[in-house]
Amino acid sequence: MRNCDILVIGSGVAGLSFALHCADFFKDKKILVLSKGRFEDSNTFCAQGGIAAVMDRIKDSYEQHIEDTLRAGDGLCNPEIVEMVVRDAPVRMLELMDWGVEFDFENSELELAKEGGHSKHRILHCKDHTGTNVLNVLVEQCKSRSNIELRENHHVIELLKSDEKNECIGALVSDELHAYPIYADYVMLATGGAGQVYACTSNPEVATGDGIAMAKKIGAHLHNMAFVQFHPTVLHTAQNNKPFLISEAVRGFGAILRNAAGEDFMYRYDPRGSLATRDIVSRAIFYEMKNEQTPNVWLDLRHLDKNEFERKFPSIYAHISNLGIEVDKEMIPVKPAAHYFCGGVQTDSYGQTSVSRLLASGECAATGLHGANRLASNSLLEALVFSHRAAKLLRQSFVASEQSFSDISPVMMEPCDVRYKEIMTRVQEIMTEQVGIIRTKNGLEKAKDSIERMMAILPANKMNVELKEVENVVTVAHSVIENSLQQEKNCGGFFIKEYELENNHL
Ligand SMILES: Cc1cc2nc3c(=O)[nH]c(=O)nc-3n(C[C@H](O)[C@H](O)[C@H](O)COP(=O)(O)OP(=O)(O)OC[C@H]3O[C@@H](n4cnc5c(N)ncnc54)[C@H](O)[C@@H]3O)c2cc1C
φ, ψ for residue 124 (rounded to 5)? Predict the structure, then answer.
């Protein structure tokens, strides 16, 4: 029995905006959105800086946004996709405003911020909690559509594929007690990123790369998995179990990175100083920390207007102040952390994957926009553009599946084993040490060996959500390593030490 017409896995910006468009295009179809945690457990909820779009074509231009994106992507972007996304951006922003997102305005004009790698002020934002505002608006809009059903705490543990055809037919879902199949005509994968593959990440705990791993398991092509973006500035604290991000927009506002000697070191690495692209800033920080044997560098705001900082970045200001840091008197300790997966499930320009009836959008997808390195604030935009295009594609070509869906009885979930957590921690350590900001060929080979040994000891056929997450993290880690070993030169966020001199990179 078919349980819904369109199944959406993930309730971040990609999943919810796709569900909304589908609900409006197909009044008679049922759209089911599943989320493994609560709505706020997503990268979207955490997004601070904003969304890049050319809203003022006198002070800015599509050509400049395209050029900045291509430059960050370091030769690996698909130029046609970049142009398409950049040109679609203003319409998607107006749509968000129509749905109820209140971007910041100044003197009745959009207040546009500037971030690393952007040549112009073009970031629309809601103070420093843009993602939270966008997510809340999308959730409310979805709740108002009678043909959308939202289910939190429903964890997809496998994608289902037809035995006869290369076709996705639904997913195996756990509601904590049981696992049962949900069948659909089309499945949208919107499961977000995989920051949890690393020990230090800006991503929440749900970001275990489930969609990427599950898609791989049913034969979908992955692309550019080597390209993991490290954000240069998460707050460094003694505990650091949940690193807090200090948005790039803070450097756009004028904050300066300094090393332990107080030097504004970034100009030694790039003429754009603290506003160079993330890959360059992260590597520079890595070298400074290594040379000075310190666990962090510093972000200096002491020369800036404290009240204006508080007005523009209320969440960051509150978080830092609660830790007792006075930004007008002392510097903020920061360090890099795994932040964004540029690679993922390969899609075409409408979000179609290599498996029929399986679409992908958002951070789990590799669309060709980011290439070797994502330009700041292009990712919420990418999700909005591709989710809209995928829904448009279905509007034009929806065909009910001919698959006969067999009823399977729910299976009981099994208890967690402490060893799963231990394996997860070990994988995160290996990835951080050997497959992080600076990689070596030898380190990659060693990491591959260790990860393969872990793959071999993971228990097979056990129905447990934590175990599935470990399997997914291991699968993603392995794909990152394999794709890293295939790279022949340093590019964007990807860096192998042996290639350093050849490429004359940092
Ligand atoms: C701290 C931080 C700040 C950021 N700031 C910005 C910014 O300013 N601008 C910008 O453009 N980008 C920013 N990003 C990146 C951006 O937020 C993400 O790329 C984007 O939100 C991804 O959206 P998504 O819908 O693809 O995934 P997410 O928002 O992560 O949503 C994924 C969803 O999938 C669900 N899910 C995952 N696995 C399963 C499963 N097995 N079963 C069921 N559900 C599942 C999750 O529960 C979640 O609901 C930031 C990211 C972080 C972490």
Answer: -80, 140
CATH architecture of 415-503: Up-down Bundle (1.20)
pLDDT tens column, 275-313: 888 888 999 999 999 999 999 999 999 999 999 999 999
Give distance in angstroms: CA of 16 to centre of ligand 1.
11
| Ligand 1 atom at minimal distance to the Cα of residue 16 | 25
pTM (whole model) above 0.90: yes
Residue 364 has pLDDT above 60, yes or no: yes
List pLDDT tens digits, range 53-74.
999 999 999 999 999 999 999 9
Q: Distance (Å, rounded) from C-alpha 38 to C-alpha 411? A: 23
State the catalytic residue, choosing from 92, 122, 258, 278: 278
3-state secondary structure at position 118: coil
Q: Which atom of ligand 1 is nearest to the CA of 203?
A: 53
What is the third-level CATH fold of 6-226+342-397?
Answer: FAD/NAD(P)-binding domain (3.50.50)
Tokens at 314, concatenated: 């209320």
The preferred substitution site among 40, 130, 203, 379 for testing ligand 1, maximizing ligand atoms within 8 Å of CB, is 379
The strand ranges marked E within 265-318 are 297-300
Q: What is the CATH number of domain 231-338?
A: 3.90.700.10
Domain boundaries, the chain: 6-226+342-397, 231-338, 415-503
